[in-house]
Amino acid sequence: MAKLVTYAELKEHSNKTSLYILLHEKVYDVTKFIDEHPGGDEVILAEAARDATEAFEDVGHSDEARALLKDLLVGDFEKTDELKTKGPYSSSSSNSNAVNAAVEQGSNLMYFVPLAVLGAYFAWRYYSSGSI
Ligand code: HEM
């Protein structure tokens, strides 16, 4: 059976001397790999002691990148309440609500502007037809 890695262990290995990364509920030892990472060491260090799945998938890593993982595997991550593997960090919903509201306001304006132009056009036709 695969080794279970606890959240405490994940946190212990969160610096350049020893670094574990949590991806898809599995823990990888990337200590030796970070210097070779084409994306640089900082982006990986930023994912220490948290769920790096989203960051990793957002980049759209190649199959070659994924193949590297199997040699780095430490074990399965032991799920805890402290760190939901779906990511408690996935940006706060209040924030995205504000963005949604802004987008909605923008689209209201997108309807209003062409309608106003149309209204102005018919008003112009109405008045100019009277004078011809
Ligand atoms: C242990 C996990 C990781 C492995 C094995 C890995 C491996 C690789 C490899 C092989 C590439 C070259 C392009 C490709 O083949 O897809 C790459 C690129 C990249 N990686 Fe990772 N990576 C890991 C984790 C991460 C994380 C957590 C991030 C966080 C954002 C990240 C960000 C990037 C970026 C931004 C590039 C693009 C670099 C460029 O094209 O300039 N990687 N990675």
Blueprint of the fold:
Layout: E1 4-5, H1 7-12, E2 14-15, E3 18-23, E4 26-29, H2 41-45, H3 53-59, H4 63-69, E5 73-77, H5 93-131
Parallel strand pairs: 1-5
Antiparallel strand pairs: 2-3, 3-4, 4-5
The structure holds protoporphyrin IX containing FE.
Number of domains: 2
Please tell me what the overall shape is. Answer: elongated
Radius of gyration: 26 Å
Question: In total, how many beta strands?
Answer: 5
Which fold does the CATH topology of the largest domain refer to? Flavocytochrome B2, Chain A, domain 1
Instruction: Show unreliable segments.
Output: 87-94
Ends distance: 91 Å
Strand content: 5-15%
InterPro entries: Cyt_B5-like_heme/steroid-bd (IPR001199), Cyt_B5-like_heme/steroid_sf (IPR036400), Cyt_B5_heme-BS (IPR018506), Cytochrome_b5 (IPR050668)
Protein name: Cytochrome b5
Family: Belongs to the cytochrome b5 family.
Organism: Dichomitus squalens
